Every structure is written in structure tokens, then in C-alpha cells.
Amino acid sequence: MRRKPPLNDYSSDSTADEDDDAATIVDHLCHKAETKLLDDDMKGLKKFSLKQQQQRMERLGSMEIDNDSTTEIKIKTEKLENAENAENEEKRPKKHSITEEISEATESQPPAKMWKGVKYKTWSMGTIQPGTKFKKPTDREVIETLFRMGVTVAPAKAEDSRRCIFCQSQGDATADGPARLLNFDVDKWVHLNCALWSNVVYEMQSGALMHLDDVLQNNLMQICIVCEKSAGTIKCYKPRCTNCYHLMCAVKDGCVFYKDKTMYCPQHILKNEKDKELITLSAYRRVYVNRDENRQVAAVMHHSEHNHLLRVGSLIFLSVGQLLPHQLQNFHTPNYIYPVGYKIVRFYWSMRRPNKRCRYVCSIHDVSGRPEFRVLIQEPLQEDVELRDATPRAVWSRILEPLAELRRSTNSVQLFPRYVSGEDLFGLTEPTVVRVLESLPGIETLTDYRFKYGRNPLLELPLAINPTGSARTEARLRNQLPWKRPHTQRTGGFASRGVPFGLSTCSVAAAMGGGVSSTLVAAAAAVGETASCPYSKQFVHSKSSQYKKMKQEWRNNVYLARSKIQGLGLYAARDLEKHTMVIEYIGEIIRTELAETREKQYEARNRGIYMFRLDEERVVDATLCGGLARYINHSCNPNCVAEIVEVERDLRIIIFAKRRISRGEE
Which InterPro entries match (predicted)? Predict the structure, then answer.
């Protein structure tokens, strides 16, 4: 039998549980009371701190306080209150004394930034505004200021010996004055504004200054009224005013320049035209003097005693050389001519020093009847090295390959030698040099050479020097024909086919569209009539030889430009003497019946008609495929005549000069 526990023990256990519950209730009540007291203390502390802040703000009432700073303080105090409430809620289940809670709250609270916006501000762009605004200086003004202060270190300037042919001042001038020097002719220079503001001179849309040579011929003797020197080419625009100036003399005298390129002296300044006055004379655009470059090159070639050199970029042309008759066949290819004695200087990248340039002297020599190409490398602090080979590409490859390897080793921009031509580096592809080479004596006899420009009539180069000193000992070409005396062209026979067709050097029908050329076919029908041509009587050389010469030089005779008559027209590129073959009228040769059909089709399409009758059965149609001769215009006072000439058993329509035609004339 199990023994029951005594009643006393049970009652003691129950009383113990009841005591624990009571203690828990009492502890809970005490905790509530403590938290309540803690909240009351924190509220009192916050009120006290806010009151102190208000008192401090009242003391500083005389100081200006931004509204932004006060609102910033309020926002920050609200954030601090929210952070403190969150911390208090986390700390509620824990039992701590009131003093510890207060000390922890005060330690965790960051100090308030009360003086922000009052005694200091956070810096940002625009925080401090200057009292006066200053204009930002340009790069040019900064450079000029540095030079005036004398703090820059620059190499000594080389003396500029060039002089303006108008104002006679030396070297380039300021942009707001005479400005930079422009090349006018061989060793002749002119300031940009001295030329631009000269009388009669005008500027094209491309930047070319026209009629400057006329100013030099007519106005060089005009006396400037300020300095009393010649070449006062800038005149007052007022009618009957005889005042002439140099540019700087006009500026000093108080002349006014206007936007329509007029200038008035102080006595005739326009009233109420202030908005049209020019503020500055600076011309930061492309401006150049329109000149005949072929004529300039010819002048350099002819006046070698003046030591003038021709430079094209990094190439300096020293000598053209010569070709003897027995050298012509071996010293050329279908695309290039290799004269013996040819010499140039090329500035190119060094193959021994990275990122440096040096001087390469290129020349052509005769070795065993074949051309030998030599390159002399001249470099400071280095020995001169001469390379030789049979072709331009081979000799320059010995320079380009080490140069490419040098660039690869220094991690520089790579060079690809196979895309660099030896002929380019020798200067044999430069248009100016090619014109000179194609004008050498005897080059016109080459049958397998493809001419690019033809012989330049302005370049009358001397004949090749015969080493033996005797004409009888000159080598004779195997395919050279026996010498024949030039014969005159008879006036009879085919001369009756000459067409005294009145033309002015411009377009047969307006290139802008008007169908005019049906009259051209009708006028050309006069070919069948027996009319004698007086122009053939004057010819000393045969028509065939003149035709061959014209085929090579016609690009130097004419150029296409806007016509004053109608549409486009042809203008003389050089002075053309009387009876000179100017250009050939070329196109598609068709039958008369087809020409009539095409004429109707062109008229239906409102297309210009360019046709010229060759004989009774054939017509030359240049409407869709033809040369520049189709742009020649009609004129009541013609300066050209069309004539049908038999060349190599074939009929050709040739335009002849009826009288002397000046350069630039239509």
C-alpha cells in the first residue's frame, strides 16, 4: 500500500506557487512604474533642451538667420526624437535604473549643429557670389597676357624677310590689321587685308581673291595721302573722292570700313549706318590669291639663277634632270618618268630615332644604261648613310621596314610599308612635278607612256646636254622616223570643208538646260558648201602635228566656269594666239536619221541638245557623252571658229582661235 503524502506538504507546495505568482505580478507592476517614470524624465529632458535652444536663439536675435537653417535644425531635432523613441522601445523589457537610462540617452544623442547656417555654411558651387562679374578670357588673351608678363620661355623668332608689295611692311601682322601674308607670285607676298580691301579686288565663295594682278598693274603708282608713298590701293568709295590709302594708314586716319566691302574717308563717313560698320578686320577663314600655279612653276624653272626652290609639303624640288634620246626607252614606265639627274629632298620619319624626322636626299642616276635610285640619309649626330637600288620601292623598303620595326618596339603608331609607294616618296606622283617631267624635251615621243597632264606650253625647258658635244654623235632611236621638213597645209582640197562657224569660248547649248543646239546643226550644215577657210593659209606645221600637240595640251587651254551669256561656258586658261587649236568637239558619231530621232526625244524630255554635223551623212552627238567643247556658246562677235580637219584619214571637228584670246576671256 502506498503511503499518502501528508496534507501539510501539499499545502506548502501550493503556497509556494502562489507566492511566485504574486512576486511576478509585483515585479511587473514595478517595471511599469519604472518605465512610466523614465518616459516622464525623458520628456522633461527634451523640454529643457528645447527651451535652452529657444533662449540661445533669442540671444542671437540681432543676427540674420536663414529660414533654411532653422527648418534644418527642426528637422534634425525631430529625427533625434524618433531615434530616441526607437531606442527606448528596445530598452523597455530590460531592467535598468533611471539614472543609467538617462546617461545612456544623453551619450548616444549626437551634438546638435546649432551654428550651421549662422556662423558657418556648407560650401557648394554658387555659395559665394562675387560682387562683380568678369568675362572669361579667351586662349589668345591668356597667351598675350603671359607674354606681356614675361613668364614664358620661347625660342628666338627667326627673322621674317618677306615684305608686302603694297604696304612694304615686313612679316605677318596682327589679325585686326594687315593680317597674314599670302603668296602672290614667286617670292612676292601681300597681306590679306591689303589685298582684300584694294580697289577692284573681290573675294569668291571659295576664298579666292580675284583681279589682284590688275591692281598691281594699274594702281601701284597711286600715292597714299597719309604716308605719301606709292601703292595706295584702298580708295574712298565716295564718287569723285580721290583719297587713296594703305590699310594701316586708313585705320590711323579714321576711315570707316563697312560690311559691304566699302570704305569711306573721314570726310565722307555715312550717317545713320552704324549697324553696317565692321567692328574688326580679322578674317579667320580660308583666303588665298587666285594665281596661275603652272606659270609660277615655269618661272621657278626658268629663273634658276635666283635660287628659288619649289616646295610641296615635305618635298623640296631641287633638280629636274634630263633624258638623252638613247635613254628615253629605259628610263620610264607606263606611269612614271625617271630623268637622269633628278633630285629632291624629302623630310620623313627617322629609322634610327623614334618620333623624330630627318632629311632624305633622293636622286636618280644612270648606271650601265639603267636607272639607279639613291637615297642619302642625313641626320644630326648620326653618320650619313646612302642606299642604292634598281627601283624606288626597293630602295625605300630598306628604310620603311626598320622604321616599322622601331615603331613596334616603342609601342608607337604602326607603319605598313607595303602601302607606302617608293614613287610617292621620290615625288614622282606630285602633280606639279609630273607636269614638269612631262614637259621635258623628247617625252612626247614616248608611245607607251600614259600622259596625265600633257606638255605644259609655259615650260620651255632647255634641250638635253649632249655629253659628246656634237649632234652627229647622238644615239638614234631604232623606231625614230627619218627627219622631214615640215610642210605647209595647202588651202585647196579639203580646206573647202572649213566652217567659219562663229563661236565664243563658252557653251554650245546652255548647260543649265535650254535646248538651243538645233540651230547648231543647221549652222553646221554649211559644211557641204564650198567655202574657203582663210585660217589654213597661216599654218606652218601640218594639221596632224598640231592635232597631236593639242590632244596633249587641251587641258591647259580651257576651263569650265559660269558664263555671262548663258549657263556654263569655256574660258581661256592661258593666252591663246591666233589660229591655235583650242579643243576638239568630240561625242558619239551617228547617222543623220538617228540624229533627227534623238533630237525629238531630247526636246520631249526638255533636255539641251548638243549636236554638230560632221558631213552630209554623219552627226556628232555630245548630249550624253562628249567633251568640254559642247559648252561653247554662240556670239555675234565670235573669237573662235570651227573647222573640220582630216587627221589620220579621219574627220575631226576642231575649234580654232579666230584672234588672240587673253587668259580668262570667254
Answer: EPHD, FYrich_C, FYrich_N, SET_dom, SET_dom_sf, Znf_PHD, Znf_RING/FYVE/PHD
Q: How far apart are CA 594 and CA 198, in angstroms?
A: 56
Q: How many angstroms separate the CA atoms of 219 and 341, rounded?
A: 44
d(CA 505, CA 638): 8
Structural fold of domain 293-445: Double Stranded RNA Binding Domain (3.30.160)
Residue ranges of the chain that CATH labels 3.30.160.360: 293-445
**Which has more confidence, 150 or 83?**
150
Q: Is 339 exposed, middle or buried (0-12, 13-18, 19+ CB in 10 A)?
A: buried
Q: Where in the chain is the domain with CATH 2.170.270.10?
A: 543-657
Bin 7: left if φ > 0, else alpha if -120 < ψ < 50, else beta.
alpha
Regarding the domain with residue range 181-289, which homologous superfamily does it belong to in the CATH classification? Zinc/RING finger domain, C3HC4 (zinc finger) (3.30.40.10)
Written as one string, the DSSP assignment of 503-549 is: EEEEEES-TTS---THHHHHHHGGGGS----GGGGG--S-HHHHHHH
Do strands 208-210 and 234-235 pair parallel, antiparallel, or not at all (unpaired)?
unpaired
How many Cα atoms within 13 Å fall on the side-chain side of residue 145? 6
**Average pLDDT, stretch 487-507?**
37
Q: What is the pLDDT of residue 512?
A: 33
- Provide the whole-model pTM: 0.48
628: amino acid identity, one letter = L
Single out the residue of 617, 650, 625, 656 nearest to residue 539, CA to CA.
Answer: 656
Give the cell for residue 609.
541638245
Looking at 439-485, list the stretches that DSSP marks H as alpha helix, in order from N- to C-terminal side: none
- Cα–Cα distance, 378 to 364 (Å, whole number): 17
Which top CATH class is 543-657? Answer: mainly beta
Q: Which of 506-510, 547-551, 600-604 has the lowest mean pLDDT?
A: 506-510
If you search the block for the grid coordinates 590679306, which residue do you land on? 192
